[in-house]
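Throughout this review, each integer encodes one residue's backbone shape. One record appears below.

===
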Amino acid sequence: MRIAINGTGRIGRLCIRRLLDLAEGSELELVAVNTTCAPDMLVHLLEYDTVHGRWPGRVRTDGGALVRLEADERLDRTGIPPGRSSSPQPSSRIDSASERNPSTQNRIEPAPERNSSPQNRVEPASEQSSSPQNWIEPAPERNSSPQNRIELVSERDPSRLPWRRLGIDLVIDATGAFTDRAGMEKHLEAGAGRVLLTSPGEADLTAVMGVNDERFDPSVHRFVSAASCTTNCLAPVLKAMHEAFGVRGGWATSIHAFTSDQNHLDNPHRDWRRARSCGASIVPAATGVSKALREVLPELAPVIRGSAVRVPVADVSLLQLQLELAAPAAADEVREALREAAAGPLAPYVGYADLPLVSADYIGCDKSAVVDGPSVLARGSSVQLSAWYDNEWGYACRVVDLAARIAERASAAGRLGGAQAVRV
């Protein structure tokens, strides 16, 4: 499936990272990126991220395109030791199985120590030789094949984007600006087959992986929403609890990291609370979780209410869920049910941790939700539990997973839907 990304903010850039991490052997091909960011700045922001660490250089600019680098081209040109990659390790740092089975794959392992071999150290300048062998030369320019080129576009009107010429099957719209049907239709006017929103919107289907993604029908759904990061955390946990105990009602509170639409210093904003400094206050905020549940878990939407507060951390949020169950349940019974859920079909999306961890430990976790075992409380039929989620990286991974689901279903039905590319 030929994919274009519209918008290179926090989620757009992380989707680019994820797609390129999966490039080899993936049926998802990133063909184009529409951005208002200068090409050199985009490459820089892709490689260096204050929250998620350094991403191994996998693209460079070449005229009006990003070029994927081959493995032997991915050289460190600064002498700075590589930082933590945003790509999740095979264990995803937080594993889904119970700590009661203390096998290696079920534990949260400490980060590996960095290799201190000479080639990974930065020697003091006085000890460096000026001979050529002590300098890392830029990789030579190569003639990039078409499949390694990602076309860069800078167009504010989606209807004028070159999706028809490029044969785009799916646009991942990460701008947050074209969430109504009129806005999404512009991508189809430009020749795209479908649109996947990285936010709630007026979509034909709002899908959460592991909950209702199987509902995607390529003959019906042209506009798909990946919901919000909070809904992606809440829905699978709520589904697991409902299947295990029956849920009569409850409250969901998102203790959410600040986001780019808040002010870092007090300045005018349409939301008076978001006008205040996000780094200096706890800020009550609205959430669309209750509305999103109508499409994702319609049987529970009428009995679940949501609220949110923004707190002064850059990434990773915590969902607190208070539930009234159909029958009394002990805390240990709840923990066991959630362990089993995290080891079952929901394993790619839900994790479980018994360790007393904090939000910083979950930066880079690709799960939609990681249940915090020590926080589970129960009294009679009332239960409180908490789940961590990396509201940036974890959500970007779900967006790409949903794109893969769309590709799988559309390909099987012969309905990829994009205009055939015009080769020039």
